[in-house]
Design a protein that fits this description.
Blueprint: E1 2-5, H1 10-20, E2 27-31, E3 37-41, E4 49-53, H2 60-76, E5 81-86, H3 105-113, E6 120-124, E7 142-145, H4 148-159, E8 164-168, H5 174-184, E9 188-190, E10 192-197, E11 200-204, E12 213-221, H6 225-236, E13 241-249, H7 255-262, E14 264-270, E15 278-280, H8 283-293
Helix pairs in contact: 1-8, 4-5, 6-7
The structure holds ribose-5-phosphate.
Length: 294
């Protein structure tokens, strides 16, 4: 077995290689003068089971093109099988035609990903809402791992769980909130969110958080506005402190500043999207699965 990587996941791939003792195969890339991408995967891949680790965060379209180039390079080198690990899978939030004339982006991108024949797709905390499982999106065998137990364990170890309530901002967050609440032995509440625009949401719900520490849980922070609204509401209702556990911290624009201004205390995320908030690595999660394949 060999591991290789896309440009967004090199550090994570190296951690997985180190943790599994599986050799890493280097990949290089550059731009042609006209902006087209060039990639090269070095090493002899013939007859090998190859694992490609490649996240789709922040510049999803360029990373998608890089993915197709890498997959072709790996397959044409004669590998025996190809497993793709996509720690952050973009485009899944457009999982319905909300307005006339819109594409079903989640399905379009999923179909594209498996258009070159690959053997297995592994992702982490995929935004599954209207599509309930990855098998509704892919024909290729697929696995959706969750970083929530790792995030909850990190929280327990570093902050404890005294007088804690776990809160999710919307219906789809319940799948992640439930896991964290169980791990922290805390009650949980789910709010109701209505998205009014890319940077505008309204949130309502009732919670009894007076004097408590609230742990907010969600899969993604993009503009931060979802959590900003919830944090303001919880602090107005008397919460003592608000922390957040999030798998994919995209943190676009000045989202972190907005969250801090709203009153967020600690933000803990994973390295599916590397950032200063990536306190928890998903490398052990990926390593365990990859080892079970070898
Ligand atoms: C969508 O429902 C997701 O679970 C997140 O709540 C959402 O993507 C967060 O986006 P933003 O940070 O822009 O409010």
């Amino acid at each position: 077995m060999l591991i290789t990587y896309g440009s967004s996941s090199e550090a994570l791939a190296r951690s997985v290689a180190k943790g599994t003792n599986i050799p890493i195969v280097e990949s290089t890339r550059r731009l042609f003068p006209d902006g087209e991408q060039y990639v090269q995967v070095s090493g002899d891949l013939s007859g090998e089971d190859v694992v490609l680790i490649h996240s789709f965060a922040l510049r999803p379209d360029a990373l998608l093109v890089e993915y197709f180039l890498l997959v072709d390079a790996i397959k044409s080198a004669g590998c025996r099988s190809l497993t793709v690990v996509i720690p952050y899978f973009a485009y899944l939030r457009q999982d319905s035609r909300f307005k006339m004339g819109e594409p079903l982006s989640a399905k379009v991108i999923a179909s594209l990903i498996e258009s070159p024949k690959i053997d297995r797709i592994i992702t982490i905390d995929a935004h599954l809402h209207r599509f309930r499982s990855l098998s509704d999106l892919f024909r290729t065998p697929s696995l959706n791992l969750s970083a929530m137990p790792l995030l909850a364990d990190y929280y327990l170890k570093n902050f404890g769980n005294l007088n804690t309530v776990v809160v999710g901002p919307d219906e789809e967050s319940e799948q992640w909130v439930r896991v964290v609440a169980e791990r922290l032995s805390s009650p949980y509440t789910i709010m109701e969110k209505v998205r009014l625009g890319d940077r505008e949401v309204s949130v309502r719900g009732s919670t009894s958080v007076r004097g408590k520490t609230v742990v907010l849980v969600d899969d993604i922070i993009s503009t931060g506005m979802t959590l900003v609204k919830v944090i303001r509401m919880l602090l107005d209702e008397g919460a003592k402190k608000v922390d957040a556990l999030v798998t994919h911290a995209l943190m676009v624009e000045d989202s972190y500043q907005k969250l801090k201004e709203a009153g967020l205390d600690n933000l803990i995320s994973t390295d599916t999207v590397p950032s200063p908030h990536s306190k928890v690595s998903v490398a052990p999660l990926i390593s365990r699965i990859i080892k079970s394949l070898s």
